[in-house]
Amino acid sequence: MSDTELPDAAARELYRAILAEGGRIRISDIRPEDETSVKQLAALGLLVLRTADSTFSAVNPRAVGERIGADLREESARLLARAAAVPDLLEDLTHAYDVAPRRAEAVGGTRRAVGFDQIRHVIAQCLRDYPHDALVAQPGRIHPPAHRADSLAQTRRYVEYGGSVRTLYGPQARMDSEHVEFAAEITKAGSRIRILNAPFNRIMIFDRAVALIPAAPDNQVAAVVEDPAVVAHLADIFDQQWQQAEAVDWAALADGAVTPAAHEQVGRLLARGLTQRAIASRMALSERTVAGHIARLREVYDAETLFQLGWQMRGARTGESGG
C-alpha cells in the first residue's frame, strides 16, 4: 500500500467528526465537499455502508490496520518469490550472453578489442561481470574530458556494490591539474590511487580473472587476456608495484592546501624517523604548518598515531607493509 492510499488530512478530520457523532453518518447528511473523503475512508474499510438504513458506520482502525498489514505481508511474499525466480526466468538469456561471440578478434589465445569505443565497451562488460576487484595501472594521461563523467559514475557504482578499485599513476599526475582534480573526485568515490616513481605499463585487471593490456603503440587496440596463469602473473606484478608506490592526499592537492613538493618532503622526513620539530627546523617551517601536513598524511595512510604513520610510510616506500 502506498502513502497516497492512506487517508489525507481532510478524511482523517471527517473520520474524527463521525466518531464524535456516535460513529455513524447518513448518506443524506454527507456534504458535497466531504464526498471524496468518504470514498477514501470507505475504500480503506474505515467506513462501512449499511444499506438497510443508508448510513456509513465507522470501523475500528486497529482491525483495518491488521488487515492491511496482512495484505502487505502476503504481497511481499509474492514479490520475494518472484524475485527469487528471476534468475531462472532469465537463464536462457544468460546462457546466450555467455556463449555469444565477443566482437573482439581472437588472436593466439587472447581477444583483441579494436578502437576506443570497443575497448570502453569491453571495460564496461568487465566491470559488470567481475564486480569485486579492479586493478588499474595508468602511466599516461587520464581519460579525455568527454569520458571522465562516465568513468567516475562507473567507479562509484562499482564501489557502492562492494567492489575495490586500486589505481597507479605516474609521477607527472600530481603536477597536472586535470589529473589531480579527477583523482580527488575518484578517491572521494572510494577508489585508491597511488603514485609510482618508476616505469610501468598500462594494464587493467578484473577479479584476477581477465586483464586488458595495450596491443598497439597508440593504445587503440587492447588484448583481452583470460589465461589464468598469465593474469595471475600480471596481478602479482601490480601488487609489487602497489607496495612500492606512494600514497597521495589528492583532496589536499586539489584544494591547493598543500604543494606536492612540501607534502612529499614532510612525508620523506617523517619516514626517516625525524620528529615534527626536527622536520620544521629542517624545512624552515613552523611546527603548526608541519602538523597540518602530518594530519593530512595520517588521513591518507589511515594512521592513528605518529609512530604508526612513520612505520606505514616507511613500509610504503620499501614494500614491507600491506596495501
Series of secondary-structure elements, N-terminal to C-terminal: HEHEEHHEEHEHEHEEEEHEHHHHH
Separate helix tally: 13
Give the number of DSSP strands: 12
Q: Specify the CATH class of the largest domain.
A: Alpha Beta
The Cα radius of gyration reads 32 Å
The CATH homologous superfamily of the largest domain is called: Endonuclease Chain A
Give structural notes.
The protein is an alpha+beta fold. It folds into four domains: 3-59, Arc Repressor Mutant, subunit A (Orthogonal Bundle), CATH 1.10.10; 64-96; 105-247, Endonuclease Chain A (Endonuclease, Chain A, 2-Layer Sandwich); 258-323, Winged helix-like DNA-binding domain superfamily/Winged helix DNA-binding domain (Arc Repressor Mutant, subunit A). 54% of the residues lie in helices and 16% in strands. It contains 13 helices and twelve strands. It has helices at 9-20, 35-44, 61-89, 91-99, 116-129, 145-160, 177-188, 228-244, 250-255, 260-271, 276-283, 287-301, 306-318; strands at 24-26, 47-50, 55-58, 105-107, 110-114, 133-138, 164-169, 192-195, 203-206, 210-214, 221-225, 246-247. The chain has a nine-stranded mixed sheet, with helices on both faces. Strand 7, helix 7 and strand 8 (192-195) form a beta-alpha-beta unit. Helix 1 (9-20) packs across helix 2 (35-44), helix 10 packs across helix 12 (287-301) and helix 12 crosses helix 13. The longest helix is centred in the first third of the chain and has 29 residues, at 61-89. The radius of gyration is 32 Å and the shape is elongated. The model is unreliable at 319-323 (pLDDT under 50).
